[in-house]
Each structure stands twice: as C-alpha cells, then as structure tokens.
Write a structure and sequence with these properties.
The chain has 756 residues and is of the alpha/beta class. It contains 28 helices and 22 strands. It has 4 domains: 6-178, GAF domain (Beta-Lactamase, 2-Layer Sandwich), CATH 3.30.450; 181-202 and 330-423, Phosphohistidine domain (Glucose Oxidase, domain 1), CATH 3.50.30; 214-319, PtsI, HPr-binding domain (Enzyme I, Chain A, domain 2), CATH 1.10.274; 435-751, TIM Barrel (Alpha-Beta Barrel), CATH 3.20.20. The protein is 45% helix and 16% strand. The protein starts with 7 loop residues before the first helix and ends in a 5-residue tail after the last helix. The structure holds phosphoenolpyruvate (PEP) and magnesium ion.
Length: 756
Amino acid sequence: MRETAAGPRVLLRRLREMMAEAMEPQERLDRIVREIAQNMVAEVCSLYILRADSILELYATEGLNPNAVHLAQLRLGQGLVGSIAASARPLNLSDAQKHPAFAYLPETGEEAYHSFLGVPVLRAGRTLGVLVVQNRTQRHYREDEEEALETVAMVIAEMIATGDLARLTRPGIELDLSRSVSLKGLPFNDGVGLGHVVLHEPRIVVTNLFNEDSDREMERLEAALSSLRLSIDDMLSRRDVAFEGEHRAVLEAYRMFANDRGWVRRLEEAVRNGLTAEAAVEKVQSDMRARMLHMTDPYLRERMSDFDDLANRLLRQLMGRGPDALAEAMPKDAILVARSMGAAELLDYPRERLRGLVLEDGAPTSHIVIVARAIGVPTVGQVKGAVSMSENGDAVIVDGEDGQVHLRPQADIETAYAEKVRFRARRQKLYRELRDKPSQTKDGVPVELLMNAGLAVDLPQLAQSGAAGIGLFRTELQFMVASTFPRVEAQEGLYREVLDAAAGKPVTFRTIDIGGDKVLPYFKGAQHEENPALGWRAIRLTLDRPALLRTQIRALLKAAGGRELKVMLPMVTEVDEIRQARAIIDREVRHLSRFAHHLPTSLKLGAMIEVPALVWQLEELMQAVDFVSVGSNDLFQFVTATDRGNTRIAERFDPLGVPFLRLLRQIAQAGQAAHTPVTLCGELAGRPISAMALLGIGYRSISMAPASIGPVKAMLCELPLEALMERMEDALANHGAKTDIRAELTAFAREHDIPL
Ligand code: PEP
Ligand code: MG
C-alpha cells in the first residue's frame, strides 16, 4: 500500500486557491479532480452529479476517458456510484469488479481499475453527487483517506449549492438540488400558504471552510464542546428539572452524546484534515442526517436527531448566532420548515410574515399545532425529509387542506395554486358576508356558534369570525408558552384583556388543563407516567395542588369584576370533584369580598364531559353545574380507546359513527331535561358535516376554531333542521351499529343543497 503524497491539509489548501481563482466552472472541476487524484496517489478521480431526473452524470474525471464526461450516466441505485448515492454511504473496495452492484460503463474505460473508493457528496444530509477515486492495483484505502475524501466532497457540495455548476447543465436538464418535489404529510391546520422557506434551525452557512491553523481550530472546537457540556450539566442540575421525567431524559441523552467519543473523534478528525471547527461540525452533522434519512427504526432516528440538535447547539456556540439576525432576514412570506418546534418558539416569529408551517414531526393535538391553529397558520405535519430537502429562500407552497407541500414548485402547480388561493379568497368573502346574518337554520332555529381561543393573539378573530362568544378559552396555553409559572398579575392581565375584547359577549374560561400531553417544562412534581392521558392531569392535578387553582380563580375573579364570569372544569370524573372545586372558588370569593374587591356580577360554574364515567352521573351532574361542555376530543379518545395523538389510528373509528353519536345525543337530552345548557367544544364542532350531525341530534350551541365559523355558518343557513332531525332519529334507531351516518349526512346535504 502506498502512502499519500501529501496530506488532506495540502489538498484543501490547493482547493481553496482554486475556488478563489476566476475560471470557467468546467475547468475548475477538471483541475479539482486532477488535484485530488494527485494528492491521493490515485490514477482516477471522478465526480458524478445527481440530476433532477435521478440520473448521476459524470461531470469531471481524471484518468477515465475524457470523452465520457457528460455522457456516462447511471441511474440512482445503479452500479457502485448509484448505490453510494442511494444509500448516502461510502464504499471502499479493493476489488470493485467483484462487488455485486458493479456496473460496467464501456465508454469510461474503467475496467483497468480494481480498487475503488467512493463517497457521497452531501449537503444537510441530502445527496448531491458522488466523488470517486480508483487505482489499478488492489489497494485498500485507509480510514483517514476516506475521511479526507469526504471532506473534499463537502467542499464540492458547497460549489453545487452556490450554483457554480448550474452553467454546466444542458438546457432542459436540472440538478437534483433545484428539483421540484411534492411531499405528502398530514393536514394539521387548514389554509393555503405560498411563500419562501425559512428553516427554523437555519442551516448555518459555514462560509469559512478551511482552517489556517489546525491547532488553534482544535482549541476552538474543544472550548465550544466544553461549554456545550457545561450548559447541559447546568440545565440538568437546575432544581426544576431534577425531578422531571421526559425532559430530564432528553437532557441526559444530550449529555451522553456530548461526551460520545465517536462523535468527538470525527469532529477532531475533520479539523485535523483542515476544516474549521464549524465546517467540521457541519460535515459530521450532514453525515448523520444522511444516515437518519435512511433509518426506519424510530428509536434510532430519535437518537440520531438528538445528535442533530446537539450539532446545531454546537454550531451556534461556535458562530455566536443571535436570534435577531434571523428575524431581520425573514422574508415577508415566510413558510417555516422544522423538524419539530416548541409552541413558544413559533410565537417568537413575527406573525404578519408567517404564511405557513411545515413539520417533520407533530401530531394534530401537539402543542405547536394547537398554537399554529390558534394564530391561523396553515400547517402540514409528518412531512418526512422536509428539512433536508429545503434550502432557505426556496419557493414553497403549503396546502393545509390536503396535507401537501410543494417545494420549488413548477409553473403549472403555481398556477393551479394561485387559482386555489383566489377560490379560497372568494369563499372567505362569502363567509364575511354571512357574518352579520342571523345565526339560524333555514327553518329559523337559532344556533350559537362560539369560538375556541387560548392566547391574546386569538382575540382579533372574535370580531373577524363573527363568533357569538368564546366557548372555550384554554387557559393552559399561557402556561405552556411561558418559561416559568405566570404570576397572578400576568394571569389577571390576560383574562382582563380577553373580557375587554369580548365586549360583553360570553367567555367560558377553562381552568388549566395541564398534564397528559400538555407538559410544562418548569413544573416540579410531574413524574414520568406510563399513560399520561389517563394520568395526573387537569382537575385531578389542580385539586391536589389547590394553590394553583386558587391563584387562577383569584385572577379570574379580579379580571371579571363588574362583569359575568363563566368558569369550567376539565376532565371531571366524579361529580364530587365539582363540589371540591366549588369550595375553593367560594373561599376565594369570600376572601376577595372581605377586602372589598369588585366582584363579578354573576359566576357560573360548568364542567366538561370528557371522561365517560360522567355519562352515568348525568342527572346529578346537570344539577351540580350551571352548564356543561362536551370535550369531544378527549371523550372520543376514551370511549373508543384511541389515543388522539396517534396518527396511525387517527382515522380508524369515526366519531360520526352510531355509538358515539348516540352517546352525544344522550348528553344533549339530559341537558334539555334538566334545563342545563349543553355545548360542545371539541374539533367535531368545527367541520360542517360533523357540526350538522351535532345539530341533528339536539345541540344548539357549539364552539370551534375561529376559521371554522364561516364554513359552519354557511352550512347552517341552508339547513332544514327539522328534516335533518327526523333523518338522524331514523339513522340512529336500532338498525344495528353499521349504519353509515356519514354517507347519510352527505346524501342529505346533497338533496338540500347544503354546502359541506
Ligand atoms: C376536548 O377534549 O375536546 C377539548 C376541547 O379539550 P382539549 O382539546 O384542550 O383537550
Ligand atoms: Mg380535553
């Protein structure tokens, strides 16, 4: 085995010089491959670039037949080069022709070469091409040579990404990097957004690739690594994290990775090879991302993405990126693309510039999605590969109606969407016109359409949507977006703002519904639970921590001084819990009146029906409260034993099936019998077809996301309610649980020209 003539440092220095010189791109590539071949004492060095049509085209070669350049082609997955591109993993072979994937390209004359080392050209985990060296002898390339070639490949990736090679492509042929792709995800929030990509974890553009002095660079890397480790230790030792399950586990994993020898060694190696510390982090991160893309095991993917987060932290550490820089550079039509994101982080972006949100993770009821819905940002989730396929500034369309994301869309898709946006705008106009019409059915039955809210940003929607009031104010959202418990003054301030904005329209405040999937990172005392949805949450938690409830009640009472106050309790299981909560409330009322505070003119207390056990206490329940509200999201999850956040079973059982509708009808009837107002505030209220079903079984008040009010009202105004009630009565009668109610409703709507 021969030694390399000069180390990778020399090679990188030469490349740097070549990049700086003014020359034609083809000449530059030719010189680069020649330089690599010389440096690595290889007879051949070739560069293949991945085109948009999934073909790898030979762009430059030293050693193979020069006439094959731009002619020799392999499909993705074909031959050694194709498999490297497809798997994003290097291949190091001493006898390439014996490899089962070997494909012979006669035009190149490569039959003379036995040993073969090929590495993917990666950028942010995406394969852009393949770089190969070959030798006649059956040589085995050392690991450090493989590393060196990967480092060079990274430089080439930058060249491709900066558009340097675009001039070499023939007309009509595009590089893969600029290919338009349509990705399918799940629609999480309706709406269509056209705009430009803003990566939430921006690909920090490492402009300074080559180091001048690797000892100094190594010191920078070590320093950044140790402050990273210190900051993790610091987070772990903070008292509030010390008892926590999930959050702590993540940090523990971070600490383990930050000390991972393999990871650190690869970073050091890249610096020794001549990269700057930040370029080294980027290179190792890109390799990791590529592996992540090809991984199917969810546990391993999760671990790899921990490394990814860690690398981002390290990059920020090295480059000192301030968050302000991001907001300044943000386009006016930003579509955020992220693997996942905290609810608070979303609110950090200027709302007026946000046109959409694309998440690789997320579930319909995850925090970030609830907040995105609250501020009306079209959202698509579960879009695998979205981050690595996107570049900052790419044109993108988010379709929150059918869950599609079109990256770098072609002209015909853009035209189709421009039409769709115009259509939606016309519909919005129609909804605005409906806003001032009475909220009643075609046969004159009044129906109350309320909206759900949870943050101050939602309030303008009250006037815009024409809602009759707020049927569910999720007070926990203020807690979720804060970094510590909001003090009583902050709570009171928000509630006052809400009541002021409502200007006399009714508002129902739900006491904090934390626990389950709504985790407060700063909340001490929560423990990891096997089944958080069935665990210590909502009223269970607040009855055990009465100070929390007392503070909130005090804030509510003060904010509502001189006005009506409606409070509702989440996740009630036994009527006695209402009695206990009422005792706490009464105590606060007495306390405030002793100090001559201005009290609400009336106080109404309600309970949510979310736990099935309440259904067998309906009579007592209706006596114990002033109103009830059905939380159909949780009630459906518990009645059908179907985790509401689990996308795999999300469509399995239909809430418009016979059993659930019979149950909902029973609740509405119990309310009528006891003269206790009943409303429903789950997602079921927000779709015209399900809202129609609810009206058909007796509901006269429903609460939904503000954007749903228009479509639901459009349905309502055309609805002959009496006819529908008869039809539903019949459909839900004892014909067996297999009746297809959804089909019945659709047919009814068609017969009566009801827009669904
Ligand atoms: C529900 O469960 O239906 C509900 C409205 O509450 P949340 O979605 O906040 O759990
Ligand atoms: Mg609920």
